């Protein structure tokens, strides 16, 4: 420990005074270095964080190159803007998510809820919208009504719901992860139903990147806003902190006796013993998270429908990749099957096309997406 602290102090002394760093970068580095060795900034998995951060620190010290470029590679997941505090940046860098309290107003959320209800009552028809029902209901004789809707997907053509994706206070945070050119790529309103007794309301642990044929992953971020109080009881988000630093894993349908919803893939070989964090949130609280962060949600053990609204954003200069021959090929095939049925298109549809159609520019310039 003594050696570590000495190294840390030496690194600070060597790096900071001579470096052409901004005040924000200096604060960040100092905070990072000191917190790494005390584990003070987070109660989460201090051991793992410490060894990982120590590795990165050793790298930095070996180079002792205090140029802004080396700092950027040291801080790969966020951009410096005036918004995030150094503590918040460190937290996202290390954990892969950042929870901001009270970011969306009650009034806005109530408007989204009304728009959702109008869609459920079939008073409006929204082009491209996918209305999902829970598999426990979809596969039964149950007569569907509005309560049978478990998720809306692709609401980009609904002006009221899509307003969520353009909220200035959300975009200010998004910009810290994507940079200034921002595309809204994927939109959802999740209405997690009371569990019908078969645990089908669960969402298996997964990485959202599995669904996306674009990169780089670090320039993609999800914003997920609680539309009411979410708790472990009604199936809040569950995350595995730090997993955004890993790679994309193989995904498949989990072997669940009660059935699994269409396209709800989970990471293969998920170890339920891994330390996880339940993100309990109040109405309007918003979590931003990295597309490699392993997350899911537990079953809804209440009688209410747990609501959340979310959008996946990507930098305008992300680029499409071909997922043929990769672990994503299984989801590509499923998505193309559904697209062919939904749009009635034949022949040469590519995964990329499905995403190009959904993507909407919300800030700056549309470049390669
Ligand atoms: C970061 C991204 C993370 C994610 O995106 S995770 C979730 C991804 N989910 C999706 O992309 C949406 C997938 N779902 C859909 O596209 C549609 O709901 C789906 C499954 C095509 C069904 O839509 P429709 O055809 O309009 O519905 P339908 O009532 O006529 O049913 C047709 C057949 O599908 C079945 N079905 C409907 N909802 C289901 C469900 N939730 N899970 C499993 N199967 C389901 C339904 O039983 C019916 O089957 P069958 O033809 O009777 O054998
Ligand atoms: N085999 C599996 N593969 C992928 N994900 C899984 C698997 N088993 C459980 N999960 C996911 O793990 C998360 C937590 O599941 P679970 O409902 O068992 O626990 P919980 O809600 O965290 O805790 P509790 O039910 O004890 O309050 C959920 O996202 C669930 O869908
Ligand atoms: O709201 C939830 O339960 C999480 C949904 C989710 O992670 C997803 O659809 O990708
Ligand atoms: Fe997800
Ligand atoms: Mg549970």
Automatic annotation (TrEMBL):
Identify the Pfam families for this entry: PhyH
Q: Name the cofactor(s).
A: L-ascorbate; Fe cation; ATP
Q: What is its EC number?
A: 1.14.11.18
Q: Which GO terms describe its biological process?
A: fatty acid alpha-oxidation
Keyword list (alphabetical) reads:
Dioxygenase, Iron, Metal-binding, Oxidoreductase, Vitamin C
Give the record's pathway: Lipid metabolism; fatty acid metabolism
Q: Which InterPro entries match?
A: PhyH, Phytyl_CoA_dOase-like
A molecular function (GO) held by this record is:
L-ascorbic acid binding
Q: Which Gene3D superfamilies match?
A: q2cbj1_9rhob like domain (2.60.120.620)
Catalytic activity line of the entry? heptadecanoyl-CoA + 2-oxoglutarate + O2 = 2-hydroxyheptadecanoyl-CoA + succinate + CO2; hexanoyl-CoA + 2-oxoglutarate + O2 = 2-hydroxyhexanoyl-CoA + succinate + CO2; octadecanoyl-CoA + 2-oxoglutarate + O2 = 2-hydroxyoctadecanoyl-CoA + succinate + CO2; 3-methyldodecanoyl-CoA + 2-oxoglutarate + O2 = 2-hydroxy-3-methyldodecanoyl-CoA + succinate + CO2
Q: Which GO terms describe its cellular component?
A: peroxisome
- The main enzyme category here is oxidoreductase
Family to which this protein belongs: Belongs to the PhyH family.
Protein name according to UniProt: Phytanoyl-CoA dioxygenase, peroxisomal
Q: What is the lineage of its organism?
A: Eukaryota, Metazoa, Chordata, Craniata, Vertebrata
